[in-house]
Structure formats: C-alpha cells, structure tokens
Design brief:
Order of helices and strands: EHEHEEHEHHHEEEHEHHEHHHEHEH
Strand content: 15-25%
Structural class: alpha/beta
Radius of gyration: 20 Å
Distance between the termini: 9 Å
Number of helices: 14
Number of strands: 12
Length: 345
C-alpha cells in the first residue's frame, strides 16, 4: 500500500488535577514522541479563556516544541488572525523561521477561538464584524510582510517600507484553515494551501475540498490534507471510553454559558457523568471520530484519504487519561501517534 503521511494537531488539553506547566510538559512529550516516530508536521491550535485547553499562544508553544524536536515541521492550526495585528503575526513567524529554517508552518484561521467577551478583549474592543470583514486583506498583509522584501505601506503622501524581520532568507508557508466555504474560496483565489476542519464535525469536507480545487487560481497544484479525531486502544470499546472526556468537552462547548467551565474530565469522571445533552446528540458528536485498534483506525484513515484524494492526514489524538496516569505525559495519546505512524508509513 502507498504510504500516507501522518501529522498531529494538539489543543494541549488540561485535565482534572493538572497544572498548565504539566499540560505543556505533556505536549512536549507528545511532540518528541511524534518527531521520533516520523510524523510530518505538528500543529497547535489557538484557544482562549478555556480551562480545558492550554494552547493560548501558538508562536510561543511552537518555539518550545521546535527546540525539543529535530526534524518534523511545527506550525499553527491555527493563528486566529482577527485576534492579532498582521505585522505582529508576521514578525513572530519570521523569527520562528529564522530560528528553525524549513520547519515552520503558519496556519491562519478566521474564527475567534473563544467566547465573544474574550474575543472583544483580544481585539482591543473591536467588534467581530470590524475585523472579520478585513480578513482577506489581512491575510495578504501577513504574506507580504513575511517576504524578504517586506511590504510598502502608503500613509497619506508618504510610502513606508515594513519588514517582519531585517534580513530574512526565507518565509514559512502560509496555510488557510476553515470550516466553511469562505476560506476554501479565499485559499483558491490566493493560491494558498488549505485545510478543512474535518475534525470539527466530519461534515462538509468533500464539498469544501471540491470547491477549493475547482476555484484554484494559483501557480502549481492545490495542496490540502485532512484533520480527524482518533484514538487507538486494544479494543474499540476501550477507545470509546478513552474518547469520552473529549466527547463531554465538546458537548459542554455546545452548551456555552449554560454550564460552568471545567478542565477536561478524567476517564473515570466521564464514565460516571451523565450526558449533558440528549443521548442522540451526545452520541452524534463522536460519530465521525476514528476509534479502535491501530489496524482499524489506520484502515479508516486510508479509506478517508483515498475518498478525499489526499496523501496526508492530520490526527488529533483525543484519548483521555485515567486518574492514576502521570500528569506530565499522556501515554494513550502517544500510543495513538506511534502506532498509526508505524502502520501508515
């Protein structure tokens, strides 16, 4: 069978009893494991004001993980551009590229990655419409600032040259991320690589990829891959148990402010907790996830990749932890990565 490249998406979950430092240590351990296993790229997300997720600042985390690894690419899945000034994002990733040349990806998204109040605070009081409608322009600004030549800004009667870093020898590739048709069309129009967030709900992927490929206006060929939630265990039943904490977290996100925030449950807590939403809706959350033995999940990944005509899949290893497991690493998540990489390469 042809090889299928495996990549990893990490939200850096924070579970019951775990401190931020321990969650970051667990992410470092997972990244080192992934690097040794032969994973192609490792991306971290951006989320704010969430007790169950520690990935608030992708550039800082990428620097930490890049320093601990040797060969795989590190990137953002993604930086939520409406929360940041374009030049600040370009400067951060220009420095990362200078420090770790050829190993950095800049994935950009349009969503806030948080609740409306926190988004308002991140954006200096600007409303959602104020920044989202400028998203295409800001993406192009980031790309221009990242180039060795920089960008020329026209302010009044004067032109000003602005560079993200003084003497860049290269720039990280910019990827657009999305969960709707908007980013697929924009990525095609700008000739950028694109990733649809299949791991969100498992719906709309084929349509978004078809739209991206049909509207492609850039040089070369369109570049894309899939994201998917997965757990590897000895049995499908055990994989489903390990996925329960993440399933509860997603259900609580659907409820929004109706439930108090909390860290990610342990497996024991998730097994004992009633479904926070009707059982049919709760079960539907996990329906698109790939849960089972390594052979079963690898076969499902190959099938999904073939249907979508991609040669790379990005797995979010969502396995939870039992209460007596270590706080500074997550063996169940590391197992998912190592066993799938071995079977797919």
């Amino acid at each position: 069978m042809p090889s299928l490249a495996l990549s990893v998406l990490d939200l850096i979950p924070v579970r019951t009893g775990q401190r931020t430092a321990q969650a970051l240590a667990a992410a470092r351990s997972l990244a080192v494991t992934a690097d040794r296993a032969g994973v192609r790229r490792y991306w971290v997300a951006e989320h704010h004001n969430t007790l169950s997720v520690a990935s608030t600042n992708p550039p800082v985390i990428i620097a930490m993980l890049a320093a601990a690894t040797q060969r795989m690419r590190l990137g953002s899945g993604g930086v939520m551009l409406p929360n940041h000034a374009s030049l600040a994002v370009a400067e951060q990733f220009a420095l990362l590229e200078a420090a770790y040349p050829g190993r950095i990806d800049l994935g950009i998204g349009r969503a806030p990655g948080t609740d409306p109040v926190t988004a308002w605070a991140l954006r200096g009081g600007l409303g959602d419409a104020d920044v989202v409608q400028q998203f295409p322009e800001h993406v192009q600004q980031v790309i221009a600032f990242l180039t060795p030549e920089g960008a020329t800004l026209q302010i009044g009667d004067h032109q000003h040259d602005v560079r993200a870093t003084p003497l860049a020898s290269g720039a990280p590739p910019v990827w657009l991320l999305g969960s709707s048709d908007f980013s697929a069309q924009l990525a095609a129009q700008l000739g950028l690589p694109y990733v649809f967030a299949h791991h969100f709900s498992g719906r709309g992927t084929a349509e978004a990829l078809a739209l991206y490929r049909s509207r492609w206006a850039g040089p070369g060929e369109p570049t894309t891959f899939l994201t998917v939630n997965a757990v590897v265990a000895d049995t499908r039943a055990e994989a489903a148990r390990l996925a329960l904490p993440f399933q509860h977290m997603m259900a609580r996100i659907h409820l929004g402010r109706l439930v108090p925030p909390s860290p990610l449950m342990t497996v024991e807590e998730a097994l004992a907790a009633p479904a926070p939403i009707p059982e049919d809706r709760f079960a539907a959350i996990a329906a698109p996830w790939l849960l089972g033995t390594a052979d079963e999940v690898a076969a499902d990944l190959r099938s999904l990749a073939a249907r979508s005509d991609v040669s790379e899949v990005m797995v979010q290893p969502i396995a939870g932890a039992y209460a007596d497991e270590p706080l500074d690493h997550t063996p169940t998540r590391e197992r998912t990565v190592t066993e799938l990489t071995a079977l797919l390469s």
